[in-house]
């Protein structure tokens, strides 16, 4: 239950003075519904109104506050577009105040001729004439105090002016109360951090440009609070998982033995090492929480299969979660192929499976007749009941936060711990994994299966498109299969599609009957049909939007063409290129660029030509883009932070992790005064999932 002290923070914004239904709705779009959301809505800049020059000293585009005498009004003739102008002056120069769509009588009252006024706003020189359009403030000299010396500038939403936003945020801040201190006093002292509410107030009342800098002290304090709440919640959940009676799986047994014997290749050293690390976890009576990192094509699937077979030969079940339908079906196919002769049952379940067939499958699953279930999120729907799920493998799943972990854990046999193996081809920097996974163990596949020729990567101007198309003739005659990735168009998905369809028609004319098209708007079965035709060799050219980005495996594909490669990020280009060079043939990747406008785009093309090493590419990506963008929260599924920014504050993450660990060592149930304060923090930062694992305070 949320502590009473926090009630005001969770009140709706409509309860604030000056916020009606319409404004509340506008606010909800950009800021949120609650007072708390307004607290986190920090200014991004300041307006400094302290500059108070004589009119004659004003340079172009200056924010000024000036004392003037009002002169004549120049009202536009009715029904014209001309603005309303009011002349004013001091003893050095004249200035025009300009108003569009003005109400003349209002201005006559505000700016009576012959009287003094203090005016604040942005002055500019237009056609040699000093002027100010729509001043921010116009007051009588005895009310000069009503003009703030420095004003915060908030990110705005259409329909709410800066002034109104400022007023609303101030009203929200008035509702806030001082909260008990949850920080370790020594840390607070060392960092010179202010109290919580003082920090909040300072951030909303900046006095210098540095005060709105995300790396300023006050902001760091609040960022730390957020990381601490995040790490504490993850630690609580992890402790809960560890508390459950784990099970020791049989890592040595007939199924694993047979699989390895049957494999048409030898496992790489790297694969063997990762399998050994995973086996140690599986064989121990604690639950596993491990991340398997390995570049595209490094052979993660077989490692996962070995782990899943350990579950099966122990008499339990395993599940493999894939991010998309296509990938789920592909995993299903390759696992089925690998399991030939092993006498186990593998099935696939996605959102597409419905009706009787689905019911039958669920019945078999509950009866324990299915050993391995592959699928999308459908695997963890409410009505999916496992007989005895011991291991969940999560592929290409960056979005693996607290909630998802709980959903997966819920499918285990009650009271029993479950093993989890997450797999990713994106090498995530250590500090960043901490925020998503907490203190997860990491295994890395650093070595690629032998016999792979490097991919020949070339960058070519899009002007030479016709030439490129003609050059495909030869490899096609030699039996090559070709991916053609269509440009990422910024505006909308529809135009993505149009571009892909157009390219499809063009190529289909040149290579009739041999070209297929897949895109995100297609229905699952349709998509699968085209993919299968391409994988099976009935189609030789696959035109695609980026739907094929992750994981698809067609070893015969040896040519990858990427149109407008300059619009893709490095990680994405690397993923796409990883689709070729999977078999023993020589592969080519053609990066067709349009306009290499930025330094950055040129650097990306160069790196792609130079290396295929995913870890190096990730590093370069980090360097070129900064951590914030690399794992831009939306696309990567890193937790959405409200205050903290991975770009500016990631150095605080390991500190928060250690802090959280120590807290739970010394105050297991958060019962001390500081522990109680930390409970408040968890609720405040909406990380209360962990609290239910505490004995009530
Ligand atoms: P990832 O999922 O890491 O991108 P996959 O598991 O799909 O990679 O493996 C890519 C390809 O490499 C598959 O065709 C697989 O059969 C093959 N492969 C995996 N391990 C080896 C190995 N040790 N030697 C040769 N080929 C391998
Ligand atoms: Mg894979």
From TrEMBL:
Entry keyword annotation includes Nucleus: no
GO biological process: DNA recombination; DNA repair
Family matches, as Pfam families: DEAD (PF00270), Helicase_C (PF00271), RecG_dom3_C (PF19833), RecG_wedge (PF17191)
EC number: 5.6.2.4
Domain Helicase ATP-binding: residue ranges: 281-445
Key word Lipid biosynthesis present: no
Enzyme kind, highest EC tier: isomerase
Catalysed reactions, as listed in the record: ATP + H2O = ADP + phosphate + H(+); Couples ATP hydrolysis with the unwinding of duplex DNA by translocating in the 3'-5' direction
Record domain Helicase C-terminal: where: 464-623
Annotated PANTHER family: ATP-DEPENDENT DNA HELICASE HOMOLOG RECG, CHLOROPLASTIC (PTHR47964)
The family this protein is said to belong to: Belongs to the helicase family. RecG subfamily.
Protein name: ATP-dependent DNA helicase RecG
Species assigned in the record: Emcibacter nanhaiensis
């Amino acid at each position: 239950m949320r502590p009473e002290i926090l009630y005001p923070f969770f009140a709706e914004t409509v309860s604030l003075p000056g916020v009606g239904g319409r404004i509340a709705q506008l606010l909800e779009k950009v800021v949120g519904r609650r007072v708390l959301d307004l607290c986190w809505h920090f200014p991004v800049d300041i307006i400094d109104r302290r500059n108070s020059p004589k009119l004659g000293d004003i340079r172009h585009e200056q924010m000024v506050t000036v004392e003037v005498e009002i002169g004549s009004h120049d009202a536009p003739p009715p029904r014209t577009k001309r603005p309303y102008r009011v002349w004013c002056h001091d003893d050095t120069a004249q200035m025009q105040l300009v108003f569009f769509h003005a109400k003349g009588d209002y201005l006559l009252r505000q700016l009576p001729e012959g009287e003094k006024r203090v005016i604040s706003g942005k002055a500019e020189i237009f056609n040699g004439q000093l002027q100010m359009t729509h001043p921010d403030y116009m007051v009588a000299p005895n009310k000069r105090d009503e003009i703030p010396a420095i004003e915060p500038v908030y990110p705005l939403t259409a329909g709410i002016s800066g002034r109104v936003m400022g007023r609303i945020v101030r009203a929200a801040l008035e509702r806030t109360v001082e909260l008990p201190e949850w920080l370790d006093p020594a840390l607070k002292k060392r960092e010179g951090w202010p109290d919580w509410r003082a920090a909040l107030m300072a951030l909303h009342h900046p006095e210098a440009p540095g005060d709105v800098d995300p790396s300023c002290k006050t902001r760091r304090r609040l960022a730390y609070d957020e990381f601490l709440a995040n790490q504490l919640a993850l630690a609580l959940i992890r402790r809960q998982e560890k508390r459950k009676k784990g099970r020791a799986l049989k890592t040595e047994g007939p199924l694993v033995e047979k699989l390895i014997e049957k494999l048409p290749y030898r496992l790489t050293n790297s694969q063997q090492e990762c399998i050994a690390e995973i086996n140690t976890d599986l064989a121990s009576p604690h639950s596993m929480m491990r991340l398997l990192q390995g570049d595209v094509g490094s052979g993660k699937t077989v490692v996962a299969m070995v782990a899943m077979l350990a579950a099966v030969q122990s008499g339990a079940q395993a599940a493999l979660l894939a991010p998309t339908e296509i990938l789920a079906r592909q995993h299903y196919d390759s696992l089925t192929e690998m399991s030939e002769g092993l006498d186990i049952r593998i099935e696939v379940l996605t959102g597409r499976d419905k009706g009787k067939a689905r019911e039958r499958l669920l019945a078999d699953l509950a009866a324990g007749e299915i050993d391995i279930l592959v699928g999308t999120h459908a695997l963890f729907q409410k009505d999916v009941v496992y007989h005895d799920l011991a291991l969940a493998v999560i592929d290409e799943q960056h979005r693996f936060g607290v909630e998802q972990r709980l959903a997966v854990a819920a499918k285990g046999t009650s009271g029993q711990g479950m093993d989890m193996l997450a797999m990713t081809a994106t090498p995530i920097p250590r500090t960043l994994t901490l925020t998503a996974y907490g203190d997860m163990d990491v295994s890395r596949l650093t070595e690629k299966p032998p016999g792979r020729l490097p991919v020949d990567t070339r960058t070519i101007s899009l002007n030479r498109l016709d030439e490129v198309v003609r050059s495909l003739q030869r490899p096609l005659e030699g039996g090559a299969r070709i991916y053609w990735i269509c440009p990422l168009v910024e505006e909308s998905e529809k135009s993505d599609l149009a571009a892909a369809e157009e390219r499809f028609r063009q190529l289909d004319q040149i290579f009739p009957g041999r070209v297929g098209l897949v895109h995100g708007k297609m229905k699952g079965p349709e998509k699968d049909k085209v993919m299968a035709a391409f994988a099976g060799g009935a189609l030789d050219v696959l035109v695609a939007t980026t739907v094929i980005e992750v994981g698809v495996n067609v070893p015969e594909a040896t040519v990858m063409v990427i149109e407008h490669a300059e619009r893709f990020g490095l990680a994405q280009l690397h993923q796409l290129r990883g689709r070729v060079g999977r078999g023993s043939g020589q592969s080519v990747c053609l990066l067709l660029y349009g306009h290499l406008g930025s330094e950055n785009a040129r650097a990306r093309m160069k790196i792609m030509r130079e290396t295929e090493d995913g870890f190096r590419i990730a590093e370069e990506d980090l360097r070129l883009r900064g951590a914030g963008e690399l794992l831009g929260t939306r696309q990567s599924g890193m937790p959405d932070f409200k205050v903290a920014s991975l770009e500016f504050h990631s150095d605080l993450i390991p500190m928060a992790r250690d802090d959280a660990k120590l807290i739970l060592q010394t105050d297991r149930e958060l019962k001390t005064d500081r522990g109680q304060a930390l409970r408040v923090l968890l609720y405040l930062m909406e990380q209360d999932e962990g609290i239910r694992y505490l004995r009530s305070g």
